Amino acid sequence: MTPAEKIPLLHVAFSMKFPSPKSELRYDTPFQLLIATIMAAQSTDRKVNEINQTLFSICPDAVSMAATDLNTIRDTIKSINYYNNKAKNIHTVSKILLTEHGGTVPSTREELERLPGVGRKTANVVLANAFGQPVMAVDTHVQRVSNRIGLCSTTTPRETEDELIAIIPPGQVADFHHYLLLHGRYTCKARKPECETCPVTHVCDTYKSEK
DNA sequence: AACTCGGGGCA
DNA sequence: TGCCCAGAGTT
């Protein structure tokens, strides 16, 4: 079965497993999505989501975050303040949005990647989920799942991006991301994948070859 | 494209 | 405690 042929089957199976596919990635604004994605880097989701609740209640947009004292931000997110840089980064990002982008989140990769703490993966998340652009954010979950199922032919994220882009279900970039991400996080885990509860073993090259 | 970096989950 | 992981930044 080719990767493209697997897509409809994946979609059906994952739709049942993850009935509200957009819930976790749905933030009110592009700004909150951007900040939440920066926050998510190298952190666990549960903790990040809790912190974001508080963070966004204090500063829901670029204007208020830029005006918030750095120490307040530091204190709010301190349990995931990776390298002690994250607070500084999101503070700086909000100020740059104000001074260089009229208070909005830019919609090109070049502009996004110029922001501190924003790399290719975060940029792609924003492009796909806030602006609906047909790009794929390939993190380690998506890479691993794609390799195991057989949706891509290399372990190089940059090449995997292009192979996945070619088979994105039309109009469903966000869902596609979400399925692959959650599946990798909760079922197709790096250490001990839980094939017993996996909804897509019938499409999975690795499962079939190891069976 | 490969390497570095070092907090946090988990065994 | 020690191994492994996550992605941005660097080379």
TrEMBL record:
Domain HhH-GPD: 39-186
Pfam family, one: EndIII_4Fe-2S
Residues bound to [4Fe-4S] cluster: 188, 195, 198, 204
Broad enzyme group: lyase
PROSITE patterns the UniProt entry points to: ENDONUCLEASE_III_2
SUPFAM superfamilies linked to this entry: DNA-glycosylase (SSF48150)
Key words, A-Z: 4Fe-4S, DNA damage, DNA repair, DNA-binding, Endonuclease, Glycosidase, Hydrolase, Iron, Iron-sulfur, Lyase, Metal-binding, Nuclease
Leader sequence residues: none
Annotated cofactor note: Binds 1 [4Fe-4S] cluster.
HAMAP family: Nth
Function summary: DNA repair enzyme that has both DNA N-glycosylase activity and AP-lyase activity. The DNA N-glycosylase activity releases various damaged pyrimidines from DNA by cleaving the N-glycosidic bond, leaving an AP (apurinic/apyrimidinic) site. The AP-lyase activity cleaves the phosphodiester bond 3' to the AP site by a beta-elimination, leaving a 3'-terminal unsaturated sugar and a product with a terminal 5'-phosphate.
Family the entry assigns: Belongs to the Nth/MutY family.
Protein name: Endonuclease III
Lineage of producing organism: Bacteria, Pseudomonadati, Chlorobiota, Chlorobiia, Chlorobiales
Gene name linked to the record: nth
